[in-house]
Amino acid sequence: MRWRHTGFACLILALAPIAAATEEAGVSVRDAWVREAPPGVSMMAGYMVLQNKTSRPQVLVAARSPGFETVMIHRTIAKEGMTGMEHAPQVELLPKASLVFAPGGYHLMLLNPKRTLHAGDRVDITLEFRGGLVLAVAYAVRK
Predict the structure, then answer these.
(1) Three-state SS string across 55-91, please?
(2) Domains of the chain, each with CATH number or no CATH
């Protein structure tokens, strides 16, 4: 029994610097979710609200997930009456501002899931920012 308590305490101590670094960086994520895909579809989309509480811009440069072969930042665009998607190599989050990733706008394009995901499941996605900030976020799968 003693090992369980010691192991748990070590885990808490190991994770504390990550939480402190995130708070210190002033960037957070809320309402993170992934749209459930119909059977046989190899693409899914991830959404969230990014919040920058700092007085300097933050730049999202990449995302990755152990649950998908590829994760890319995309945005939906309208051009000449047609709607499509384009890769966004980076996204700037202005100081003291929020940026919504939502259907019809910015989103994470999640390609080739490694397992079938259903509403109620969770997906881990890591967001990487210029300057070295890394945020690990749990996304809820929704219909």
Answers:
(1) CCCEEEEEEECCCEEEEEEEEEEEECCEEEEEECCCE
(2) 27-142 (2.60.40.1890)
